[in-house]
Amino acid sequence: MMSTGGLITRSAALLPAVEKPPVTTPRDPAREAAERELSKPLYHQDDPGLLQRALDRFWEWVGNLFDHASGATPGGTLGLVAIAALVVLAVAALWWRLGSPRRTATTAAGVFDGALRSAADHRTAADAHAAAGRWTEAVQERMRAVVRSLEERTVLDPRPGRTADEAAAEAAASLPDHAEALRTAARTFDDVTYGARPATAEMYAHLRTLDLTLTHAKPLLTGPRS
């Protein structure tokens, strides 16, 4: 015969098991736990870098700007592309015509960059460069010939470090009829020397003509310089 205790134990085993209530976590601690988990480097190994994210934002901004502009432009996207192409062509034409806009007065140095040479020596060097198609060097040497010739004729006092602009301004006081041509020559010299503007055969021809003209020009008598 089974004891009372054994009967109770066996009866309890035959009863259906009572389900345990699910474990729940409050919302805020759960969110914080998820954020801590997702912040681990393991989950961000393939994320784009800071630069890539910045570029993505930039191109997204450009795309939005392009969409708004194309919507406001006659012809839509095709019209906007046509306008952009015209702007690029205009800028390229100005760049080709005017050269690189990097010339500033603070970058200008003296006309002469080496040992003292005569005007005849500079003319010979200029013609040699021109014959070889080296127009930048030809323009530079011809401008040096102009300034040296004016010094040799005492139109200008020899002065080391004189810039092309200064030489043109000082010479114009004695040669007023050639003031504009002198300023143009100085500007050309500075543009090709300091502004990286490509020199041309036409530039050299103008400087050569000025040089030959000035050799026969009679300066005004302005009296002794102080």
Task: Write out key terms for the chains shown.
0% strand; mainly alpha; 226 residues; 9 helices
Give me the secondary-structure category: mainly alpha
Radius of gyration: 42 Å
Number of E strands: 0
Query: For the report, how would you describe the main beta sheet?
Result: none
Q: What does this entry look like structurally?
A:
This protein has 226 residues and is mostly helical. It is 62% helix and 0% strand. It is built from nine helices and no strands. The protein has helices at 4-14, 27-38, 50-72, 76-98, 119-131, 135-152, 164-174, 179-194, 201-214. Helix 3 crosses helix 4, helix 6 (135-152) packs across helix 8 and helix 6 runs parallel beside helix 9. It is elongated and about 100 Å long. The protein starts with a helix and ends in a 12-residue tail after the last helix.
Give a concise summary.
Helix content is 62%, strand content 0%. With 226 residues, it is mainly alpha-helical.
Layout of strands and helices, then pairs:
Blueprint: H1 4-14, H2 27-38, H3 50-72, H4 76-98, H5 119-131, H6 135-152, H7 164-174, H8 179-194, H9 201-214
Helix pairs in contact: 3-4, 5-6, 6-8, 6-9, 7-8, 8-9
